[in-house]
Amino acid sequence: MKKINLSTSITLFNSISELPEEVQSLMNEAIKIRETAYAPYSKFLVGTAFLLENGEVITGNNQENAAYPSGMCAERVAVWKASSDYPGIPILKIAITAKSLNNLVSEPIAPCGACRQTLSEYEINQKYNIEIYFMGETGKIIKTDSLLDLLPLAFDKSFL
Ligand code: THU
């Protein structure tokens, strides 16, 4: 038997103004689209903006449903928009922000497990890692250099 430690590294930014300029504007797009999320049940609004290699910015927000599991997270709304409008164009950077109508969200909000799995498929298919920047409504921003930093031991098509 052998115990193996897997490690992940993150970069922490204190505020939006510390981010590289291009990422600041990506985060501002995510904040803008967050406000029109359809989240009447959770009152938890998530917005995201993706920068593609061709310079296009694709945005998305969460879309809930009275039949709760029929709703969808912002990240998957955006990645499917990106892949259907621009199939095969690599995703370079993702900005994510979340806000609650019930309380102030000041911790960085990471993408859920299902979104990590979905996004990893696209990262694995392209030649670049995807930089992911995520935050709450205010406060610090966490950056990971790759989807796989958020999803160690990922399941992918090589197992099929
Ligand atoms: N949500 C997202 O949009 N992205 C995530 O990664 C986590 C959760 C949404 C789903 C639901 O509409 C609300 O946040 C509460 O879970």
List the helices and strands and how they pair.
Layout: E1 11-13, H1 21-34, E2 44-52, E3 57-61, H2 74-85, E4 91-100, H3 113-125, E5 131-135, E6 141-144
Parallel strand pairs: 4-5
Antiparallel strand pairs: 1-6, 2-3, 2-4, 5-6
Bound molecules: tetrahydrodeoxyuridine.
Residues 39, 42, 44, 46, 62, 64, 71, 73-75, 111-112, 115 line the site of tetrahydrodeoxyuridine.
Write a brief structural summary.
This protein has helices at residues 21-34, 74-85, 113-125, and strands at residues 11-13, 44-52, 57-61, 91-100, 131-135, 141-144.
Describe what this molecule looks like in 3D.
With 160 residues, the protein is an alpha+beta fold. It has one domain: Cytidine Deaminase, domain 2, CATH 3.40.140.10. Helices cover 24% and strands 22% of the residues. It contains 3 helices and 6 strands. The chain has helices at 21-34, 74-85, 113-125; strands at residues 11-13, 44-52, 57-61, 91-100, 131-135, 141-144. It has a 6-stranded mixed sheet with strand order 1-6-5-4-2-3. The radius of gyration is 16 Å and the shape is globular. The two termini are 27 Å apart. It binds tetrahydrodeoxyuridine. Tetrahydrodeoxyuridine is lined by residues 39, 42, 44, 46, 62, 64, 71, 73-75, 111-112, 115.
